[in-house]
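Researcher: Let's continue the batch. This sequence belongs to Pyruvate kinase, and it's 478 residues. Same format as the previous ones, please.
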Amino acid sequence: MPTTTHALICRTKIVATLGPASSDYETIRDLALAGADVFRFNFSHGTHEDHAARHAIVRRVEAELGKPIGILADMQGPKLRVGVFADGKVTLKPGAEFRFDLSEVPGDETRVCLPHPEIIAVAKPGSRLLMDDGKLAVIVQKVGPDWLETLVDVGGVLSNHKGVNVPDVALPIPALTEKDHRDLAFALKMGVDYIALSFVQRPEDVSEARALIGERANLMVKLEKPQAMENLEAILELTDAVMVARGDLGVELPPENVPLAQKRIIRLARRLGKPVVVATQMLESMISSPTPTRAEASDVATAVFEGTDAVMLSAESAAGQYPREAVRIMNRIIWSIEQDAEWQSTMARMRLAPEDYVADAIAGAAQQVADTLKAPAIVAYTHRGTTAFRIARERPSCLILGITPTHEAGRRMALVWGVWAFVNEDQQVMNVEDMVVSALEVVRRARIGSSGNSIVIAAGIPFGVSGSTNTLRVARIP
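Model: Same format as before. Here are the structure tokens for Pyruvate kinase:
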């Protein structure tokens, strides 16, 4: 059974990226103690050996602390880049003509290789190409069989292998590259809990990944393309979780549209009961500073007020100078917001009506009964985590204790708002009396509530059958 390892127990979870600054046992353990619930492995960087070593450490920390810790493997996805220049870089001047082609001859001030014929195939006059995270922009004037003539709109220095974004067209490329296929096979064999799919454009991208993953991990789509926003509901219907990847999304969408996209994604994910993560630049200044800016603290607070399941640290914890401090301050910001009466009333106002099937009716009723009785906890017996996911969708005012017989389900629940997962591999729940006794024991060990408080228990009968949630019970703490 877990013990209280957080200084502050928050409903909104923290995802921390591991990297060069956070690969040793002491640091990873400190991050978990500071409030990290899920660790992200970024497969854009590092070797399989690096990731395997971190995986072993996370599982060692998990066993020591006695709490499930989720692992998210983030696939790199298709990376579009320009070729090389004879002098390593050039300066593009606004109003100048510039050509992209398939020739591998090093570029100069007039042209460069664009080794992606799929871009040339779909570009049209008026299409924009953004480079170096949107710092430079050109507009296509003419399209040839193997070249694009463009006009520089926003100039600057362009150097070797800088990234290219094409926001105006859907590119005929798969979301999983050959590298991703290798990384995916390795991550699944290693035993990660979530696979993040990068640069999703269409529902078909999700279906392809789902066919490869099966039930071995939960699938998370990263929303960072305007085309994905056009297919948002169809994509979210097919995934298990979603990430608001504001880095590339902020390059391809006008900056003023990113907050609206974030709000729309969170709202729809909440309605569908899919965990949602807000990511990128949340505490960016803490890469080199021990404290965040006030604007960054407000950014985290906004995501918490919107009801996101989790907020994510990227370079702050992977490569920054203050990974521990970044997790601690994020935990403190979340805690401060969640103690605020306005946040609590906001969660109540945002509460969703249960959908018309038994398990969701039970989830909605559990929230209502818990609020009426001022219960300190809802205990959810769940085989795969689904019951806890549905109760979390209701955003109850108390904690959700998810009891499961499998480590896999416990780790997947680590990402979900308000859920504190408990893994009971050996426990046999045969009847309602066993269910109540076990639930009260979990509440006691979690040190939640006081003698005389009521708790609400949701379960499925017959026990041990996935997807059978049909029972609600109230018990009193002795």
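Researcher: Any comment?
Model: The longest strand covers residues 136-143.
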